[in-house]
Request: fold
Amino acid sequence: MIDTQVHDSGLGDADDDDFDDVVEAYDSQLPDNRYLDRELSWLAFNQRVLELAEDPNLPTLERANFLAIFASNLDEFFMVRVAGLKRRILTGLAIPTNVGRAPLDVLSDLATAAHALQERHAAVWSDQVRPALADAGIEVVSWADLSDEEREILYDYFSSQVFPVLMPLAVDPAHPFPYISGLSLNLAIRIRNARTGRQEFARLKVPPMMPRLVEVRKDGNSVRYLPLEELISENLGDLFPGMEILEHHTFRLTRNEDVVIEEDETENLIQALEAELLRRRFGPPIRLEITEDMDDVTLSLLLDELDISENDVYRLPAPLDLRGLFSLSQIERPDLRYPAHVPKTATPFQPAEQNGRADLFAAIRKEDILVHHPYESFTTSVVSFLQQAARDPHVLAIKQTLYRTSGDSPIVEALINAAENGKQVLALVEVKARFDEAANIGWARTLEKAGVHVVYGLVGLKTHCKLLHVIREEDGKLRSYSHIGTGNYNPKTSRIYEDYGLFTANEQVGRDLTRLFNELSGYAIEKKFKRLLVAPLHLRKGLLRLIDTERRNAQAGKPAYIRIKVNSMVDEQIIDALYRASQAGVKVDVWVRGICSLRSDLPGVSDNITVRSILGRYLEHSRIFAFAHGGEPQVYIGSADMMHRNLDRRVEALVRVMEPAHVTELTSLFDLAMDDSTSSWHLGAEGEWVRHHLDADGTPLVDLQEKTMASVLRRRRTRTVR
Reply:
C-alpha cells in the first residue's frame, strides 16, 4: 500500500479495488486506436537525431557527431528491439504490442522505415555533412581523389602498419565459412586462381583496433582522411599474390545481442550472466548491411552461409558503419563545435574562501540542494560528496546503487577508500545493465576485494534507482545525508547527459532510504515510504492516484495540471490516465525525449494534451513529475520512465521535492520547454513529429539548453558579486 500520510506523500488512501474499478470503467470508454506503435515511435526519435545532422545552422563537427549517434542508436535498436521481436515470433511467445497489429506486419513496417532512414542517413553524409567538412578543410576522400605521392605514403603505411595484422580467411572444402562477429566491418572478396581458373571466396575483417579514418595529409587546419576499408581494398593484391581480384565489397552483420537470464532457475547470477555474455557473441543474425554495388553472386553466398533472408538485407551507399565519424571528435577545431562549456559548482557547494575546500555536509545540513547537470558540476557535487564521506572520520556507513559507471571511476575509488578507512560500505551493483554487464561484473569483483559489501539486487528485478546514502555521527547522534538522482553515477556521461540530483539531510528521506536499502540487500519487505515512490510495489499506483487527483480537482473547479518529463512514455495505464485527465479539462504537458505511444490528435480524448521533444548538445535524461495539487504544487524527480519494465520489473525511486525554490525551478523549466518560442519537436497527427526551430522570419527559436546554461552562470555570478 502507498503511505497514507498526506502531509508527506500527498497521496490519499482510497480503496485499491474501488480505484481499479474506476480505472477499468474509464478505459472501456477510450478508443481502440489510442496508442502509437512504440517501435515506429523509436525510429521517429532517431529521425529527430538525424534532423540535427541535417541542420546547416549547427557546427559542422557536431553534425558529423549526430550522424555517428544515429548509427550507434540504430545498431542497438536492431540488436535488442528487432531481435526481441524475432525471438518472440520464432518461439511462439506473445508479442507485446499496444496497437493490435500482427507481429510480422510490425516487423515489415519496421524494416521499411529503418531502411528508408538508413538511406537518408547515408545521403546526409554524402550530400551535406561531408561537403561541409571539406569546405572547412576536413576532407574524407576516396582512393581516386589521391595524388600519386599520397598513394605512395599510404601504401607505406599499409605495408608497415596494416598488412601485418590482416587475416584473410579462405572458404573452400578445407576452410569452412568463418564466424562473422556482430557489427564488425568486413570485405567479401571473390578471386580467381590464375593457373586453374577456379573462383574462390575469402572474407577479410577490417581491424577494429585501427583508426577507421586514416590520416592522409595534414597542413594546419586542413586534413585529409581515407576510410581504412578503402586502403585495404586497393591493396588486396598484396594479400592474394598470383590471384585475380574479381569482386570486393564491404558488408556488416548485426546479431541478436540481447541477454536473457532466467534468474529463478540459476544458483549463481554472475556465472549465468557470464555464460550468457559469451552466448551473445554467437547470437543469430538479424541484419545484413551491404554496399549498393555488391554483385548477386557474392550476396547469394553471404545469404546462404549466414542463414539470413533477403528481407533482412540493407543495401546502402558506402561507407557502411558511420559510427566511424566519432573519431572526428579528436580534431582540434573549436570553431566547428558547440562553444565550450565548463560545468559550474552549484552555489551552495562553492567554498567560502578562494582555493578553499567546501564542507558539503554543512551545506546540506543548511538546506536541501538541487543540482542540475551538466550545467552544474557532477564532480564538485556528487563525487566530492562521496570523497568527503570516504575520508570523514565521523562517517560510519555509505550505501550506494551503481547501474552504470565509467572506467577509472572516482565513484568506485571513493567507495574502496571508504572501506579501507574502516567504514561500512554497501554497493548495489546492477550487473544486468544492458551492454555494461561485463564492466559491472568487473567493478563488483574489484569492490569485493577491497572489502565493500556487494549485492546484486532482487531476483527478477533490475535495480535502476540512483541512490546514495551516508550515515554520519554528529554530537552522539546519527544523521543521514542522502542523494537521489535521475541519472547514473557516471562522471563521463554526466558531462553530456542532462540530469537532476537532490541532496538532503531530511530525516524522513534518510529513513526511507534505510528501509529501501535493507530491502535491496536483505530480506526485509518494506512497503511504506513517506517521501519516496518506489517501483515495483507502488510507483505505478502512486502516479495513477496523483493523475486522478488532478482529474477530480479539475471537475471540482480547482487548479489542475500535469507535467511529465521522461525519456519514454509507453505504459498504457499511465497513458489512459492522462487521457482521462485531459477529458476532464486538465492541461497535460508531456516532455519526452524518445519513444512516445501517447497520441495528441484524438478529438475528445487528447484535446488538452501537448507533447514536445527536445534534442541538442546534451541528452535530455532527467525525469520530472509535476502536479498542481489544488494550488499547492507537488513535484517529484527520479529514475523511472513510463514503461512496463520501469514500473513493473525494476526498482525505481522518485523523491518529492519540497523546497519552494526548487519547485519553482523545475516548473519554470517546463514553462520554457513547452513555450512555442522554444526550439522543439511537436507531436502531431498520426504520430508525426514536426521540428519547430525557426520563427516566421527564419530566426532561430530559443535553445533551451543554451538558455539554461546562461541562467546557471548568472546565478553563480550573482553569488560572487554578493
